[in-house]
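User: Sequence in, structure out. Go.
Assistant: Echoing your sequence, followed by the structure tokens.
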Amino acid sequence: MAKKDNMKVPAGKQMGPGGKGRFGKPQNVKGTFFRILRYLKGYWFLIALVFLCITINSLSSIAGTYFLMPLINEIFESPTPDMTRFANTLTIMAVMYAISIVANYLQARIGISITSGMLHRVRTDLFSKMQKLPIRFFDTNSNGDLMSRFTNDTDAMRQLVSQSIPNLFSSLLTVVGVFVMMVYLSPVLTIIVVAMLVVMTVFVKTIGGKSAKNFMRQQAEVGRVNGYIEEMITGQKVVKVFNHEQDTIDGFNEINNSWFEANYKANALANILFPILNNLSHINYAITATVGALLSIGGIVDLGTLVSFLTYTRNFSNPIGQISQQITFILSALAGAERIFKIIDETPETDEGYVTLVNAEYNLNGELVESEKRTDMWAWKHPHSDGTTTYTLLKGDVVLDGVTFGYEEGQTVLNNVSLYAKPGQKIAFVGSTGAGKTTITNLLNRFYDVEDGKIRYDGININKIKKADLRRSLAMVLQDTHLFTGTVRDNIRYGRLDATDEQIRKAAKIANAEFFIEHLPDGYDTVITGDGANLSQGQRQLLAIARAAVADPPVLILDEATSSIDTRTEAHIEKGMDTLMSGRTVFVIAHRLSTVRNSDAIMVLEKGEIIERGNHDQLIEQQGKYYQLYTGMFELD
């Protein structure tokens, strides 16, 4: 989209990916969590299987550890060991651990199916919503930050569902199960373990809380880094032209250092937590083993019970650290999910229009009626409150009546602008940068809606026309050409998806693009990648003109459409452009005044107002602003 006129950044704000932002924990943990659950609708049976597998895995592992007691006692406590009973116990123990392994495998496999399906839904909703958002949204959000929603934030949601929640449930179940078994084996030794657990909990709460904040900040910083990188890669030519490589590096270092700081603090605290807990668990283990040995010597606890209890002690402390870590990851993932849902909850582009564009034909009575087949004749279908429907032939009659508009509240870009364009007329807008030229074309497309005044299209207020139908009746060639990955043929056909190969060739010929296309390696089947990086800027713009030509609209908007074409090429395509513009209402924005000399009317804009209007000869005779601009360019030539 062309850049907007007079768009200002509010005081105290920094636009773009380098802008500072606030980082914090998720605003609505409960609401976000339950909203994620809605995306799991249809997977409840598989989810139940996952939690069943986790339960079997944990209980089998706990049970397997319990069988250490009879094994040890059979060997060391019994005067005459029963090897058959020993073998049976060992077999049961092996089966328990085997069941645990199988359950763990099934949990992972089923989890992949669940998360893949969930993320497919999330990405579909996110991408679909982006197609419905107004242009204003994309003007105020960096591309890299939006891309971060599809990559980092969705990956955080994947980890939440596939790892964090299952691991948290497994850890909680293990802690409860192990605790029950420890109380069963030795209440006295359990008191010692619980006392040490209180100490460990204090460390977890202190360090884990600080780590969680930095993990959430880290997640947000990733978006800033991605945004900056995307912007610099796109503008690499501009960076090099102005020798700003070092400034770019410095800017990247600033936000990269901020990311490093958040990443360092988050992971440093998280990595410190486990060694501390591990050492505390070692101390706990040593104290428990010492007390247990004394109880065993006193005959209070047998050796098998002591060995099983000590194993449970180890299994009890590890899940405590896991619980803390998973809670941190869950909070980070919920913060990422909120960023995704924030976009999904954005107010879509509103469209209260009810007038539609339909195929039309004249019946035997000479009346304009709707046709079920394509007639290449179009009409506005206008239903009225009294139940009647009228049809207005699509001609391209455009009227602006007292239009006032501003991108920011209190800062108008257009002030009481009035003009008309009759079908087949060529209207040119000239004036200094920021005068409001591109803004008028943005309003014609309803990228933005007027604050005051009206715009009528074939006598119909454009607010009554459905946006999709309005834009179908227009074609626009922008100064900044965008080509999609695909063949040359596909990029031209983008203007009209049902266009035949012959119509595509005709459009290319009108735009004078046929010659260079046929000299490409595969002609019309040459694949364009990287926004047309293998083509010159002029060639890309010729394809954009061909795309508009194949659309065959009644209204054509040319926003500096020939700015990247040399004067010799422009002279070659002038007849083709005249053919393209013939019979159409054309709005032209141009700084090269030689391209607007043959316009039916030239509007000279200054500070959002039309200060002069007339054809070329009339404006030259007035010797006003247009005369100054034109003669200044003439002298430069």
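User: And one key feature?
Assistant: DSSP finds 19 helices and 16 strands in the chain.
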